[in-house]
Amino acid sequence: MASRNSSQNGRAPQRRRGHERVATLLSAASDCFVAKGYDATTMTEIAAKAEASIGSLYQFFPTKEALAEALLHQHAEALYARMERLLAQTPGWTTEELATRLLRTFADYRRQQPAYVVLVEAAQTLPSMLGRTIRQRMRDYLCQILAIHAPDIAAGDLRPAATVVQQLMKSAVALHGEQPVALRQAAQTQLQRALTLYLHDLAGTRESTRTYA
Amino acid sequence: MASRNSSQNGRAPQRRRGHERVATLLSAASDCFVAKGYDATTMTEIAAKAEASIGSLYQFFPTKEALAEALLHQHAEALYARMERLLAQTPGWTTEELATRLLRTFADYRRQQPAYVVLVEAAQTLPSMLGRTIRQRMRDYLCQILAIHAPDIAAGDLRPAATVVQQLMKSAVALHGEQPVALRQAAQTQLQRALTLYLHDLAGTRESTRTYA
DNA sequence: TAGATATGTGAGGATGCCCTCACATAGGAG
DNA sequence: CTCCTATGTGAGGGCATCCTCACATATCTA
Fold first, then answer.
1. What are the pLDDT digits (tens) for A143-184?
2. Would you say A199 and A99 are in contact if contact means Cβ atoms under 8 Å apart?
3. How far, in whole angstroms, is CA A205 from its chain's centroid?
């Protein structure tokens, strides 16, 4: 392996043109990662898709890992913003609405940004801790949301419940691959029902949970 | 790329020694995949771990994909056997027991065979359809189990519900990475509760679902 | 034992990839 | 206009990997 990153590569952009390049490179990288997976896409491909030279790519990203981390950081910020919005609206929602919103927020983001899933998966193999950090912060948001929605048990530790909700949100994302469409939609409905039942139970609701067909 | 698989590589073992070698190679490959991930492990490493020469490895597995597929096939058979056992025992179980067994069966397998998760993940990028086939057959087993446990709605399409149960089982596997241990166990308990609630609801049970602390 | 087939070996060809470097151009500051 | 820094370029070095091939050895059959 040639000694890596020995020169002054990896500098942040300073002029307008640099910022535009970086944006284009990040976008191109996302496309490539979605198309071929993280490991299979090469730096040369990314540069080609961005219509930049390979040297230009290395000017801003000294490494493929650095590129992935930058992208993951972007996605993290976007997701945090969505969770903030969810948190602010939680007090006005019924259990059903909360379940629907939790599942749709995550699933919608994945549809808009298909690279996100590829990146978090790749992050497990990468040396960076960013993936773990994101998961933890997302769970913290869920804890806050649950504390609002289930105030009776808010005194206890909400992290186990938040972890379960997090897994169900991940499931909603995974359902995007289901075929045919009718099955996918039916499964999404069932998943909503499962989450609603769980949230009802968490909040201590004893009313019948079978009011929706 | 050198023209691949042009010679008579990839033959099945015929003598006792060949079978032993194949077993050793598969085991070594599993270890490597778990340790470094599918993409990152090299054929040379696998051969070294098996204390075989690289040529010996290629004698039986013409390609890294073929190796992965053989392993995945083994895991599939083992999982099918477990699902058969589950199916046979389902009639005697309560909802709680069924939920526990479903979650533990899968989670236990992953603990015994950590390579399985790595392989199914890698299978998504691979050209083989084996991963999809396994998921479908697992879902079919779940449909049968649900048909026994929720006979009232067995006339309808159980696949959406089976898909949800499948996702929850996957979640149980994912929880294995949670730290610290106390949180993991609490989360597993919560996941069991979520599945129990869902199965109760599926079966049309109206009795209180909050009988367990 | 002799012949036939299965199995074992590892150097090395071919390939593709990551990344560097020496140099060219653009664009803003004084 | 001049200088200085930021940005752009792409050939190619160094290297790891996949896989082959010509040949050696083990194991079975008759």
1. 999 999 988 776 689 999 999 999 999 999 999 989 899 999
2. yes
3. 30
Protein CA at B11 to nucleotide C1' at C1, angstroms: 29
As a residue count, chain B comes to: 213
The burial class, CB within 10 Å (0-12 / 13-18 / 19+), for A31 is middle
> What CA–CA distance (Å, rounded) separates B33 from B42?
9
Query: How many angstroms separate the CA of residue A16 from the nearest CA in chain B?
Result: 37
pLDDT tens per residue across all 213 residues of chain A? 333 444 557 789 999 999 999 999 999 999 999 999 999 999 999 999 999 999 999 999 999 999 999 999 999 999 999 999 999 999 999 999 999 999 999 999 999 999 999 999 999 888 889 999 999 999 999 999 999 998 877 668 999 999 999 999 999 999 998 989 999 999 999 999 999 999 999 987 534 333 333
Q: What is the pLDDT of residue B3?
A: 39
Q: Give the global pTM.
A: 0.89
Q: What pLDDT is attached to residue A52?
A: 96
Chain A: give the shortest CA distance to residue B13, in Å. 32
DSSP result, B11-39: PPP-SHHHHHHHHHHHHHHHHHHHHH-TT
Distance from CA of A182 to the nearest CA of B (A): 9
Domains and CATH numbers, chain A: 2-62 (1.10.10.60), 74-212 (1.10.357.10)
Q: Which chain A residues are closer than 8 Å to B117 by Cβ?
A: none
Is residue A2 left, alpha or beta, with left meaning phi > 0 and alpha meaning psi from -120 to 50? beta
How high is the pLDDT of residue B153?
75
Contact B163/B146 with Cβ under 8 angstroms? no
Q: Which nucleotides of C are covered by protein (CB under 7 A)?
A: 5-22, 26-28
Give CA–CA dist B28/B48, Å, rounded: 9
CB B95 within 8 A of CB B199: yes
The pair of structure tokens assigned to B92 is: 């005697």
Are the beta carbons of A25 and A61 closer than 8 angstroms?
Answer: yes
Q: Which residues of A touch B (CB under 8 A)?
A: 37, 39-40, 121, 125, 157, 159-161, 163-164, 167-168, 170-171, 174-175, 178, 183, 186-187, 189-191, 193-195, 197-198, 201, 204, 206, 208-210
pLDDT reported for residue A151 = 81
Instruction: Calculate the angstrom distance between C1' of C28 and CA of B58.
Output: 60
